[in-house]
Design brief:
By secondary structure, this protein is an alpha+beta fold. The protein is 23% helix and 36% strand. 30% of the residues are buried.
């Protein structure tokens, strides 16, 4: 649609149901029909180098964190971009970029946010309705979420240092020794930050190690 000129910066496309939704690592994202927010947002960054692509992840993650906080729900970002509430996933993000030379011409920010779904089978997940113990008006909360997306874009998107600091301030298990699975073994590590490209920086046995999102698993 973007390449055909049918959408541009700021356009939002919604779906009521997803049966073949994709998440990180090609995981499925399944949503009950009409119960959750499923949307894609078109972003056309100005003079935005591909080197900064992880900033888009930070922007999208923080927008959801701010939205949840304003609605009385404390959440954290499980690296790189799962949104967690009390150890359960409440939202996921998938970002796909289109390049022009070394700059990002267009970014499709896909967001799946659990709103009124109450049962998640074997998944360790939750929803706004579960956390607030009431049914939620999806259209009202769509507008609330979009307000925060606009706010974060206007105040943080082009200010990388502030954006990255806010991301770390809301990062799940940041600066806490925890167990992780990597290369078929269990390690105890402490998350110390992320690289400019978004790799996870971890301290393990007085060594600093970097991981991409296919090399380490949270336990």
């Amino acid at each position: 649609m973007y390449n055909k000129g049918k959408i541009n910066h700021g356009c939002v496309i919604m779906a009521e149901e997803q049966t073949r939704g994709r998440g990180q690592r090609d995981n499925n994202w399944i949503s009950n029909s009409g119960e959750n927010l499923l949307l894609s947002i078109c972003i056309e960054p100005h003079d935005f180098s591909v080197d900064k692509q992880f900033d888009i992840t930070c922007f999208a993650s923080l927008s959801i964190i701010y939205y949840l906080k304003k609605n009385g729900i404390q959440a954290t970002i499980k690296w790189p971009n799962d949104i967690m509430v009390n150890g359960k996933k409440i939202a996921g993000i998938l970002i796909e970029n289109q390049l022009k030379g070394r700059n990002i011409k267009f970014s499709n920010v896909g967001i799946g946010l659990n709103i009124n779904q109450l049962i998640f089978s074997n998944l360790k997940a939750t929803s706004i309705s579960n956390e607030l113990s009431k049914k939620i008006n999806i259209n009202t909360h769509l507008n609330l979420l979009l307000n925060e997306i606009n706010y974060v874009f206007n105040t943080l998107f082009y200010f990388q240092k502030k954006l990255r600091n806010e991301y770390l301030n809301n990062l799940y298990q940041f600066n806490k020794p925890c167990k992780y699975k990597t290369d078929k073994k269990i390690i105890t590590g402490t998350i110390k930050g992320v690289t400019s490209w978004g790799k996870l920086i971890m301290e393990n046995e007085n060594q600093i190690i970097e991981f991409d999102n296919k090399e380490i698993k949270f336990i």
